[in-house]
Amino acid sequence: MKRVLPLILALICAVTFSPGARAASTPAKAEPKGKTPGIELATMASQVTGIAISPLLGVSGVGAYQYFKASTPEEKAALPWYAQVSFWLPALLLVAVCAFKDSIAAVVPPGLKKPLDVAETVENKISGLVAAGAVVPSIVAVGSKMIMNSSMLEHPHVVALGGVGMIQIGAFDVSWLLTILMVPLSVAVFGVVWVVGHAINVLILISPWGGVDTALKAMRTSVLSLVVATAYIDPVVGATISVIIILLAYLMAGWAFRLMVFGTEFTWDFFTLRHHRFKLLADGNKVFTAREVGGVPMRTYGRLFQESGDKLIFKFRPWLVLPERSLEIPRDGLVVGRGLFSSEVLGFDQPADKLDTLLLLPPRYRGHEELFARTYHISGTVDVGLRKAWGWIKEAFGFAAKKQPATG
After folding, report:
1. Which of 105, 164, 229, 307 could form a disulfide with 210 if both were Cys (CB 3.0 to 4.6 A apart)?
2. Closest Cα partner for 216 from 235, 196, 187, 230?
3. HEC profile for the chain?
C-alpha cells in the first residue's frame, strides 16, 4: 500500500490546491459561464469515490443522473452504456431488492438469508471489477475532456492541468494526455475505497445477527449519501469529504484486504459446493486466523503445517506476495468446531480461561472436520454456532437420536 500512497496524495493535492477549486469556495464578482477545471476535477473525485463505496448503486445512480440531465434524444443516445435505461433501471431494481433483504434481516433466520448474502457479495465483486475496468476510465476520460475544454475557454493558449501545472500550447485537444495521467490514479483510489466498502458485504456474510447486517448497510448508505449530497450542493465540499474517505480507507486497507480474501474463499466454496469434491491434504491445508495470534492479524490467510515435535506451524505471506512468515499455533485445548456453513478450530484462551476460536476453516472443510482433527492430532470435534443451536432444539423437543445402551 505504500506505493499507492503517492498516487492518493497526488489526487489530494490536485483537488485541494486547484485554482478553480479555490475560486469556487470564495464569492466571485461575476457568475462564470461554465465550470472551472477545479470544479470538474472535484466532481470527478466525488463520482469515483461514490462508485467505489457501492459500485452497483454508484454506477446506476451516475447513469440515471446523466440520462435525466440529457435534454434531447440525440444526447441520450450518445450517453455511455451505463447511462442507458436498459442498464441503470434493472440495476436500481436489484439494489432495491438487496435493500429489502437487509431491511427484514432482523426477522429472518440467518440460515435462510445467508445464500442471498453470498450472492450479493459476488455481485459486489463483479460490479467492482466492471466499474474499475470500464466505468471509472470512461468517467475520467469524459471529465478530462471537460477540464481541457473549460481551460481553453478561460485561457485560449494556456491549458491548466487541474491547477497542477500550466502548459503553453495552441488550441488543440490534448485531453487524451490528461486521461492517461488520471486513469491509473483514479483506478488506484477506486481500489483502495472499494476494498473497504466490500468489507461491509463480507462482515454481513459472516455476521450471525440480522440487526448487525442492517446497521452495516445503513452506515455504508449514509456515507454514500453524504458524498452525493455534498457534491451536489458544493463540488469542493464533496471533494473534501471524498479525500477524507480516501485517507480513512487507506488506513483500513490492510484489515479490509484480509477480510476480502476471506470473503472470496467463503463465497467460492459456498457457490461451487466445494466440500463435495474437496480432498484434505496430508499437510499444508489452507486456513485463516480467527483473532490476533502472536502479532499476526485477524483473518490472515495461510497454510497449517505439522512439524517435528508435533508442532503446529502457520505459514503465511503478508498481502499474499511478501516474504513468507511463520507462527507456532499453541496446542492447549485444541478442538475442531463443526458449523452449519463453515467450521473452525478452537483453542484454550488462558487470559479469558475459556475456549475461543483460533483458526477459521473455509466451507470446503464442511464434513471433513473429523479427518482434519485426526490429520493434525487434535483431540476431537464439537458442534458450534447454528449447528449447536439446532442440536439443542432437536434435543429439547425429543428429536435427537437416542443413545445406544452400553454393552459388554
Report:
1. 105
2. 196
3. CCCCHHHHHHHHHHHHCCHHHHHHCCCCCCCCCCCCHHHHHHHHHHHHHHHHHCHHHHHHHHHHHHHHHCCCHHHHHCCCHHHCHHHHHHHHHHHHHHHHHHHCHHHCCHHHHHHHHHHHHHHHHHHHHHHHHHHHHHHHHHHHHHHHHHHHHHCCCEEECCCCCEEECCCCCCHHHHHHHHHHHHHHHHHHHHHHHHHHHHHHHHCCCHHHHHHHHHHHHHHHHHHHHHHHHCHHHHHHHHHHHHHHHHHHHHHHHHHHHHHHHHHHHHHCCHHHCCCCCCCCEEEEECCCECCECCCCEEEEEEEHHHEEEEEECHHHCCCCEEEEECCCCCEEEECCCCEEEEEEECCCCEEEEEEEECHHHCCCHHHHHHHCCCCCEEECHHHHHHHHHHHHCCCCCCCCCCCC
Kindly report the length of the chain: 408
| Residue 382, beta-bridge partner list | 337
Count the neighbouring beta carbons within 10 Å of the beta carbon of residue 360: 24
One-letter amino acid at 7 equals L
CB count within 10 Å of CB 344 equals: 22
Within 10 Å of residue 333's Cβ, how many Cβ atoms?
Answer: 16
Q: For the beta carbon of residue 312, count every other beta carbon within 10 angstroms.
A: 21
Sequence-ordered list of residues with C-beta below 8 angstroms from that of 93, at least 6 positions apart, any chain: none
Here the cell at position 297 is 492479524
Task: Show Cβ contacts of residue 167 under 8 Å, excluding neighbours closer than 6 positions.
Answer: 158, 159, 161, 174
Asked if CATH classification 2.30.29 holds for the domain at 285-396, the reply, yes or no, is yes
Residue 279 has pLDDT above 80, yes or no: yes
- The rounded distance, in Å, linking the Cα atoms of 203 and 198 is 9
Cβ atoms 330, 259 nearer than 8 A: no
pTM for the model stands at 0.71
**What's the pLDDT score for residue 182?**
84
pLDDT, tens digit (0-9, with 9 covering 90-100), for 73-103: 999 998 989 999 999 999 999 998 888 877 7
What are the residue ranges spanned by the domains of the chain? 5-271, 285-396
- Mark residue 147 as left, alpha or beta (left: phi above 0; alpha: psi -120 to 50; beta: remaining): alpha
> What pLDDT digit, counting tens, does each position of 136-182 carry?
988 888 777 776 665 554 545 444 444 444 444 444 556 667 778 88
**In terms of pLDDT, which residue wins out, 13 or 88?**
88
